[in-house]
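thread from #wetlab-drylab

HS: before we spend reagent money on co-crystallization trials with zinc ion, can we at least see a predicted complex? here's what I'd submit
DV: go for it
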Amino acid sequence: MKDIKPEMHDIGKLIDSSIIKHNFENYPGNLEGVPPIKMNPIWEGILQHHCAEWATQYPKSFQIFILSLADDIASATSRHGMKEDEERRPRYIGGKSIYNVYKLWNPPSDVFHELSSAIGIDTSDPKWITRIVEFINKNPSSKEFFETFGDYLKKRAEDAHPGSNITSLWTHSKLTALFYNFLYDYLEKVSDKWFKTATKEEVRDYIRRVREGTKIKMVKIKMNFPQYPVRIRDLNIFDVLKELKNEISKKYPDNVIFVGFNELLLVLPLNKKLEEIRETVSKYGFWLEYAERIQNLNQPYPDPDRIMRLIDKMQKMQYKKFEEQIAKVPPDKRKKAEERIRKTIFEKGKEAKRIAELWDEYRHELSEKLYKKGSIYANLPDQINPPICEICQLNQATEKWVDEESGIVENLCVNCFNIRKRGSRFPKLDEWEKEGADRILWIRIGLDINELINVLEDLYAEYLRSLGVKKAEERAEIRFSVLSEFDWDYKEFLSKFRDKILGSFEENDFQQILEDFVAVKIKSLKDVFTVLRIFDDVFNEFFPKFKEVTSPIKLGVVCPNIKYPFLESWRILSDLKYDVHVCVIGKGEIKLNMEQLTPFLEIKVKNKALIHKLVAMSEISEKLAEIMLYDRADRDYRRYKPLRDAVREFGYQNILTYAKIMGG
Ligand SMILES: [Zn+2]
């Protein structure tokens, strides 16, 4: 197999298109002093990967045919010029090209209509063009490609049509390679001979048939572990989780689209069973929840739960509308108006119509077996003889674990014994445990993929509307490429967050457990605010737009004594329900949405004595403390004003916890 290195097919997009088309079919044109193309497989891919009306070149081999398909799936909007695409895609809105990437979560402040200013180099300069041609002429590796041109690829929108410029050429190049490898193995081979003699129309027609006739399976899996991590040493389970994620990513390099905390998104051939993955994860007794959806190649929706997600989203919109409209009615007339408003929204509204359509689709997918959801468990024995494993309670305990210090014996199954036997994977936690650290912070960042796609859809529609696109909601389709683009930023966000946390505490007081899960030993409770401040800063830097809508990214911070059972902290951290959730064991909780975080951190109550008074009172009765704030007879009534203001804005519980943290 000749190596066309699909990553490089769009390198021509780094050149001014008024001089050289990005498939180089008019090269060298009027250019002088530029080197000739030395044909190799990469060049064939570059020259022939389009099969559009405008192109004179088109796929002349099976590989380039695959490249053409992969290129399309990996793009921000469909580009094969098929009828059904044209109605959906936003690229026909016209207007001047926009060459820089509009990240939906972090839009640029400038709009660049010139390629050269977008990527910061003169893209019509024959020297630059020479550099690109000579680079491909030497048949470089994909690694060299990203090293040499990575910075430009990250700045250049894959598709410069206004409204389609939402992903970078960098993401597109990587994703094209993934789909290329996937489809190359999956699709039925057609001999190169056929391609050699086929006309462009014939190839176009074949592409159309394959896109409409090929089924792929989108699968989301969630890995769960039966082990309850009660003690610090049980945290090895997270080491296993990391290992399993790596193992699956390595085993399925051309299938894994997205890796979250314990979730993975995969694209699979129709005949691929989840059984193989089950075997991998069940080594340690893990089990899987999954959702899978069969779709055509020309519907690259990344989320298998799409229909239920949309129903859920529509319903939330209905309730929001209902509340908004009710709020407009004077209180004494609300009861009467309620029925009427309910009817117009829940029976006649456009969401109601959409929901009915979606339910039909859902039933259709279920009956046609296009959508499936369920759980896959590890092979369990029919009967478990005692003693039962004390950690997972799923297997017979055949091993004994003796604690070196206390001599306590635990009965464990082989799985759990082996996890324990890994030894201490998080050495600092052991040290802190030995020294009996008073306060530590468990810090976890979570990402809700369904929520993410919802929010991206809304932000995309907003962007399209700003460009004057009509029916923006219908066209704001989130495809693989946007999700991948987000993923790059999300990974960078996590790493910056960790670095900043590490920078604010001593190295011996920081322990990474996973990319999105760390522990910190703190000296003062106020360090909770240090963590919140860092989160807020990094969040503002990467995802400012999420603050205007809902945030799919959640932060959980639990602050216990090291001896406190980890399981209690994990109950909160494993299911993050609020944008920001802080729980200081024994003191109280703070629950905020992202929009509130910055103002919350700006609360200023200068009078420490008042805080102490509030906290002291709350130790007798929290209710009494609240009454005291509003008691005009209290001699500090006036001075409580900043606290009262804060309570109005953030709620009493949040402020009480704030006061307890500030009061030590
Ligand atoms: Zn066990």
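DV: The pocket of zinc ion is lined by residues 389, 391-392, 395, 412-413, 415-416 (CB under 6 Å).
HS: ok that's useful, forwarding to the group
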